[in-house]
Amino acid sequence: MTEFSLHFIELGHFAATLAFAVTALQALAPLAARLVGDDRLPALSFRAAVAVFLLTSIGAAALIHAFVGGNFSVLYVAQNSNLSLPLFYKIAALWGGHEGSLYLWVWILTLYTLVVAWHGRKRYQEHLPLILAVQGWLMLGFFGLILFLSNPFERLFPMPPDGRDLNPLLQDPGMVFHPPLLYLGYVGFSVPFAFAMTALLTRWESELWIGLVRRWALIAWGFLTAGIMVGGWWAYYELGWGGYWGWDPVENASFMPWLLGTALIHSITVQDRRRMLHDWNIFLVISTFALSLLGTFLVRSGVLSSVHAFAVDPGRGAYILGFMGVVLVASFGVFMALGRYQRAQEAVTSLLSREALFVWNNVAFTLAGACVLLGTLYPLALEALSGAKITVGAPYFNTVMVPIFLAVILLMGVAPLVPWRKANTERLKRRLLPPAVLGLAAAGLMLLVFGWRHWTGPVAVGLAVFTLTALLTDYARAVGLRRTQHREALGRSLLKTVAGNRRHYGGMVVHLGIVVITLGIVGSGLFRAEMSVSMAPGDVLEIAGERLRFEGVAERRGPNYAAVQGRFTLLNGGVTVTPERRLYARQDMPMTESGIHSTPLRDVYVVLVEAADAERWAVHAYVNPLVQFIWAGGAIILLGLLLTLSQRRPRVRAGTAEERNLTSP
Amino acid sequence: MKSRHARIYPRLAVFICGFAVLFFVAAASAGQVAEDPLERQTLDIAKDLRCAVCQNQPVSESNSDLARDMRAIIREQLQAGKTREEIIAYFVARYGDFVLLKPPYQDAGAMLWIAPLALLVVAGASAFVFLRRRLRAALPEPPGLAREDAERVRRAREEDDA
Q: Which protein family is named in the record (chain B) (predicted)?
């Protein structure tokens, strides 16, 4: 630790304070321009956005420098780092606590603002100042919280010789990726939000901005999806209970914006293609962002007691509640007053049309979002109002949510076969028949082989097979048609069909990923085998056809922990897994590291629980079928999303060429 | 217009999906083994109980001391011949409704079970009403189109639908 570090952290603090001031300028510029009548003021916003990003980055750099250099005169560093902490985690420790994660949030917000400013400086120049101002108000709220109540730059005197160390649970590669991805998702929805507020206030014609918002929403949705997937994966191998999703309030906090965001990216398509649902889309944009804010605050205000409740501080609750209140009242207030400035321009031709099914998609996702919100907030509200404590846990959410998701999977199979405007009923029946037969056969087979474990098993597998078949036959039909018309090689046709309509097929690939995840959830949720036994070296455990021999334990020293490492040999394949029991010295906290051996069809998952006596160990073993499908499905979803995003502009269709002309300024 | 390709590929896709299903059933049914029924029963009950000292974890999945004790109690009571309901009632008597991961259907929990159904009805009904209304909606003429152009657009759209 050098003298430079002592000065640099103050420079960082100063930069962040300056960023706060410049943000105020950015937030007020359009308003001031209107009051003073000076046309040059809006141009300021652009420069302000750049300056705020640079200043916030200096602040972040100072914090990271303090972490890496071990500057424990910074309270936040002293609380969340340690000299022996590996470099990797010293950097990630920036978002290991309350103050730093809020700083990361606002830093990402300034990054998005910068990108919007750069992206829009030509494309939507006249609306840019107001968009930046909306984001400026959000930043102002966050900077206020950071600088006055949750200041990561706060100093500590006298300076301790060493820090308290990062929570051992967070010392994991997942910590490096999960929070930034999640925040890139949460904060990403602030861009559609800023567009929607600007549109409401200026009566900006919807057709001119909804396409832009669609891309921003897809990007945010992609990050949020990736963040949730990485979070599930992290929980799976780190928490040692063999699961990846527990309907914990903190997980729900990230799931709610995901659900509404999913509704949004579908209903935007309806407006894009059929020019209706204008006000509903704005409502969804606002709600999605509101839930992102709620998600951040639920986790970071310490209002929840949950597995994720690190870094809690209820003292800031009032500010956070007030800020949420202002954002909600202002945005929904503006929406109620001005939301109907633009109405639908087309009618629904038939109840059996893609747009109608999209409406049902929105019903399902909005309902799902509302139910998760209810289940997450109800116990809090009940406790605050009446003092009664109840728990709303996984069994509740599974009961309520699984039927909704099954309906969604059904829709996912049917809707792509239904054309816009009006479906030909006969043709639709003909096309749905093979998938339906195959789906029913799969469900029947499932019953036959595995028996009646739970009604969701056969139903979910049947629906997954139905949807998969529907997707593939639809694709095969398009390929066949193309080959007939173009007389080209099969491989070329397969590629060209996708390349010609990447937006559509990207979406279909995402759906494929969802189907794969569904199979993974059915496999690991309904067919998990679990055993809790006490083993001496040489003992063999048999679980779900796997035979595990306990070879014994050995001591191991990590950089900042001492570990007991167990060795288990999987006799079926000769592979060794090594679960660990770690003790992190500084925080005196025991941690389990599970030993996992994965194949595409099943994971063997071993946890060393504790020493039973001198040589016996309590061991928890699971065999989780198809867990790998979940991660694979996540990867497929992201690939599909990239495919969709690679098509920059929707194709201009014959019937709407005149209308498109209106959109060029 | 329909050709060999257009007919064959969809069928091929159906076959591929069918084979995938068979493959998975075969692969998954290979490793079935009998489990200790008491252990499964214990976990089945433990799954629905909250480990009171943990943060939102079920008793079946927590490695805490309390959860272990609770699992042992469930096992003992099962061996003593108690039913699932009796065992759960035993824990509710000690820890209150808080211990139930699935909120009760009455009292404070009732809202949680009624609300999703009510929301479903409201959301479904409003979507239906919306669609019905838009079905009959009178539309503004597309701006800037002559009558014959509008007619052309309409016909093009209908062809599009067919």
A: Belongs to the CcmH/CycL/Ccl2/NrfF family.
